[in-house]
Amino acid sequence: MGYLDQHYNWLVLWHPETLVLVILLTVLYFQVTSPDALGARWGFSRPSAGQVRFWLAAMLMDYLAMGSPLATVADGYLYVGHMLQVTILTMIVPPLIWASLPADVIETLLNRPWAARLFRIWGHPLLALVIFNVLTWIWDYPPILDKTLQVSVLFVIGNYIMLIAGLFLWWPVMAPRAQNIGGRRGFRELLTPPAGVAISPEAQMLYLFFNFDLMMPPTIFIADTTKPFYAFYERAPHVFGLGALADQQTGALLMGVAMFLAYAIAFGAAFRRYDFSSWYA
C-alpha cells in the first residue's frame, strides 16, 4: 500500500464511482424488497435479516473487487490481482446475490416474459456452464487480456461481463427449489431442467463436477509454464516482490483453488440434500 499511496490519490485508489453504484444498488434493493416502498405494489414479503446480510456482503465484496486498491493492482501491476477480482466477482458475489433475494421477488421477475425467456435460455444448466467457462477461457487468453488492460474501460466492462456470467452460472444451483420435479435425475435433468427452479441435488452435483473439470485446462495451461504469457504484467513495475512468471503462476493457482473451494462447498450442500432412499426404491 505504501507504493500505491505515494503514486495515486484516494480518488484513484478507492473509486468513488463504484461506491456510488454500490450504494444505489443497495437503496434499490431495500426499495424493491420493502412492503412499505416499491415492493408494496407487488406484495413482496420483507427479506429476512439473513437475506439482508447476504446482500450487504455481496455489495461489500463487489466494492472490494472493483472499488478498492485491489482494482488498481489488477489493472496496473499484478495478474494475481486480476485473478482475485475474477474470483470475487464469479465465485462469491453471485451466490450472495441470489441468496439475498426473497422467493417472491424472483417469482415476480420470472413472470415477466422477457425475464422468463432470458432465464430459460441463459439459465439452462448446459448453456450456463458452456458460456461461463468459454468466457473464462477468452478473458484469460493472453492477447485479449493484454489488449483490455491497455484500456481501463474495457477491463472494467470485461469484469462485469464475468459477474453477469457468474449470476447465470449459479442460477441452476441457487434458484428456488421445487418440492417435486417429477422424478428426473442426473443427465436427463441437465438436458431438460425444471422451469424456474433449481435443478435437483444429483443434477447439481454433476453440474458442479463438469464446471470444475472445464476450469482445469486453462488453469494448468497458465500455471504450468516456464515463461510469462502476459506482456502487460511483464512490463509492469514489480513493486510487490513478485516476478512476472511467479505472478502468473500464483494467480492461476489462486483461481483454481478458489473455484475448487466454491464448487466443493456447493457440491457438499447438494450432497447433503440428496435423497439416498431412491437407491433402494
UniProtKB/TrEMBL annotation:
Q: Where in the cell is it found?
A: Cell membrane
Task: Kindly list the GO CC terms recorded for this protein.
Answer: plasma membrane
Q: Which UniProt keywords apply?
A: Cell membrane, Membrane, Transmembrane, Transmembrane helix
- Asked if the keyword NADP belongs to this entry, the reply reads no
Which residues span the membrane? 12-32, 52-71, 77-101, 121-139, 151-171, 252-271
Carries keyword Transmembrane helix?
Answer: yes
Q: How does it sit in the membrane?
A: Multi-pass membrane protein
Q: Name one Pfam family in it.
A: Caa3_CtaG
Its name, as the record gives it, is Cytochrome c oxidase caa3-type, assembly factor CtaG-related protein
Q: Record the organism.
A: Sulfobacillus acidophilus (strain ATCC 700253 / DSM 10332 / NAL)
